[in-house]
Amino acid sequence: MAILGRHHWLASSQKRLLKGDFVTSPEISQIFGELIGVWIVAEWMSQGRKSKGIYLMEVGPGRGTLMDDVLRTIKNFPELLNAIDKIYLVEASVELRKAQHKLLCGENVLERNDIGFGSKSKHSDKLEIVWAEDVRFIPKDAEQTPFILAHEFFDALPIHVFRSVPPSNAGDETIQTPTGPIQTTQRSSSASQHQWRELLVSAKPPHRLKKARRSLR
Ligand SMILES: C[S@@+](CC[C@H](N)C(=O)[O-])C[C@H]1O[C@@H](n2cnc3c(N)ncnc32)[C@H](O)[C@@H]1O
């Protein structure tokens, strides 16, 4: 369970990741990212060594270590390096985007573009790195061949969301029952304490939910 809120774990996890309070495989050894790089090379070879239209995408790149190790490995295969059109990084955190830019691009400037931000890789001026806040901003092109990485990403997304509800100031409570509302005369003991309420997590974005609600009317 991840606890949401400005001062809780999920919100502060970006800072923890930057400080190194928790560690993921790419941070333990460069071999992890190098092996993923070798896997991309092997897949590219087995798919017929396309000479253009390849793009790499990483969702939730953290400090950028995994992509840095992947690119350093791929640099040894110039044919593949030339076939890569772009590298897309999907990152929601501004702090981590800055850390990724520093590691992957060095002194190359970070500029705004149509979908977020862009810069050049420190490994090769030909490699353009593009940041987007949401995966839906990444252009879709059926002619392109994506290699998508998502390491320790899905487990960072909330599955169950709970909200701590403060005690109610109202003396009496109205309880909805199948036969109608009933007014309680006594305040329940639990109403004087904070309570946890589970919220609904929907796979659909809010604008889609509004449309679904309208079609039910
Ligand atoms: C646990 S970290 C994993 C970092 C890295 N992949 C690693 O293995 O070291 C999760 C990453 O996903 C990012 N993230 C979390 N929720 C996101 C979202 N909804 N959209 C985009 N990025 C998100 C975080 O900012 C962070 O970079």
What would you say this structure looks like, in words?
It is a single chain. With 217 residues, the chain is α/β, with parallel strands linked by helices. Helix content is 33%, strand content 22%. The protein is built from seven helices and ten strands. It has helices at 9-19, 25-28, 30-46, 65-74, 78-83, 94-105, 206-216, and strands at residues 54-59, 84-90, 111-112, 116-120, 128-132, 145-149, 161-165, 174-177, 180-183, 195-199. The strands form three sheets. Strands 3-4-5-2-1-6 form a six-stranded mixed sheet. The protein has a two-stranded antiparallel ribbon with strand order 7-10. A two-stranded antiparallel sheet has the order 8-9. Helix 3 packs across helix 4. The radius of gyration is 24 Å and the shape is elongated. S-adenosylmethionine is lined by residues 14, 17, 24, 26-27, 60-62, 66, 90-93, 96, 151-153, 156.
Q: What's the end-to-end separation, in Å? A: 35 Å
The distinct ligands, each listed once, are: S-adenosylmethionine
Structural class: alpha/beta
Largest sheet: 6 strands, mixed
Low-confidence stretches: 1-9
Record the strand order, biggest sheet: 3-4-5-2-1-6
Instruction: Supply the number of helical segments.
Output: 7
Tell me roughly what share of residues is in helical segments: 25-40%
Strand content: 15-25%
Q: What's the helix-strand series?
A: HHHEHHEHEEEEEEEEH
Overall shape: it is elongated
- Give Rg in angstroms: 24 Å
Total number of beta strands: 10
The whole-number mean of residue pLDDT values reads 84
